[in-house]
Specification:
By secondary structure, this protein is mostly beta strands. It has one helix at about 15; strands at about 30, 35-40, 60, 70-75, 80-85, 90-95, 100-105, 115, 120-125, 130-135, 140-145, 155-160, 165-170, 175-180, 190-195, 195, 205-210, 220-225, 230, 240, 245, 255-260, 260-265, 270-280, 285-290, 300-305, 310-315, 325-330. The strands form six sheets. Strands 1, 2, 21, 22, 23, 24 and 25 form a seven-stranded mixed beta sheet that branches. A five-stranded mixed beta sheet has the order 16-20-19-18-17, with no helix packed on it. A four-stranded antiparallel beta sheet has the order 3-28-27-26, with no helix packed on it. The longest helix has 4 residues, at about 15. The chain starts with 13 loop residues before the first helix and ends with a strand.
Length: about 325
């Protein structure tokens, strides 16, 4: 999951919008010499931005029992994190690590994928609640709520063109709603069935993370249990398998972040982020390196700010309780 798009009419471009974020952070990386490089991010503070500015934290504690799933970052130094437990949303200052709840939780609600637009509107995937919500982060009020008729798990979201696009992990369909936050009519919520080479698992999660192609003409969707990436035509839903080079699969692929022609794939239960170079049309993806960190504890989604990648630890291998601790962390982008 990545950040704010450059304008309201063109597909999101992480490489441009992250540059709007201002301060950049650098980390030390250790790489292996065999095959694609494997970088291990060190758990330490660095000094982003102008010389003399205080170090920014690389670890963000979240409330006990929060169960983070989604994260989004815009042009300012703030991260928005969603709760799988109750659909609440927290905002954290990347400069200090301090955070607060800006959208209260509710029984049966969830906040999985998040994307922040340049106008301050935050698009929220509702997970098992199968809802789509739009939050105005300037007022902390919901401006629109949608309820797709197809039952399922609304998982992730990307901003593309004049609409926000969502995956449904339990059904072969994408949803889209207009950007701008205000409901316009009965056709605001659209459904596009996935076809072509798309493969739907008989049970459980299939479609997960979603991004845009480098040429801005299509979408990229990861199928978690199959470990495959697909290029999807948003007009027709026709899906084409993206050929992986240097890697067999992307099993447990979750959040996607594209920075120019590089695609960062969060492989949650593997505690791994793999980095692929895409051709312009995203027909092929060549493995360039991977990122690991001893602090990874089933990271699900990521967002870029400067030279950092921020991830939330969902801790799926740890039984969730009201006392279970959670956090978000930052690692070097390169």
């Amino acid at each position: 999951m990545s950040q704010t798009p450059p304008d309201s009419s063109r597909p999101s471009s992480p490489s441009r919008r992250a540059l709007l974020g201002g301060a950049a952070a650098t980390f030390a990386l250790a790489a292996t010499a065999s095959g694609a490089g494997t970088a291990t991010a060190r758990s330490r503070h660095d000094r982003p931005g102008r010389p003399g500015r205080p170090s920014w934290p690389t670890d963000f504690p979240l409330p006990n029992g929060f169960r983070p799933e989604g994260i989004a970052i815009g042009g300012g130094p703030y991260a928005y994190m969603g709760s799988l437990a109750d659909g609440s949303v927290r905002r954290a200052d990347l400069r200090t690590g301090e955070g607060r709840t800006i959208l209260a939780g509710a029984t049966g609600a969830a906040a999985t994928g998040l994307k922040l637009d340049r106008d301050g509107l935050l698009y929220i995937s509702g997970g098992v609640s199968a809802s789509i919500r739009v939050l105005d982060t300037r007022t902390n009020r919901l401006t629109a709520t949608y309820q797709p008729t197809t039952a399922g798990f609304v998982n992730d979201v990307v901003l593309y063109g004049d609409r926000a696009w969502f995956t449904n992990s339990h059904a072969p369909v994408l949803y889209s709603v207009p950007r701008g936050g205000k409901r316009r009519g009965k056709d605001d919520l659209r459904s596009v069935p996935l076809g072509g080479e798309w493969e739907q698992a008989p049970t459980g999660i299939s479609a997960n993370g979603i991004e845009t192609t480098p040429d801005g003409r299509a979408l990229i969707v990861v199928n978690s249990p199959l470990g495959k990436l697909f290029r999807v035509d948003p007009k027709t839903g026709h899906a084409t398998n993206i050929v992986l080079k240097g890697a067999t699969d992307v099993i447990n692929g979750d959040g996607l972040v594209r920075v120019g022609d590089l695609l960062y794939v969060v492989q949650n239960r593997l505690n791994l982020v793999t980095v692929f170079e895409l051709d312009a049309r995203a027909r092929t993806a060549t493995l360039r390196r991977s990122i690991t960190d001893p602090r990874f504890d089933v990271p699900t989604t990521a967002a870029r700010f400067g030279n950092r990648l921020y991830l939330v630890n969902a801790r799926f291998s740890t039984p969730p309780t009201p006392e279970t601790t959670y956090n978000a962390i930052a690692v070097p982008l390169r």
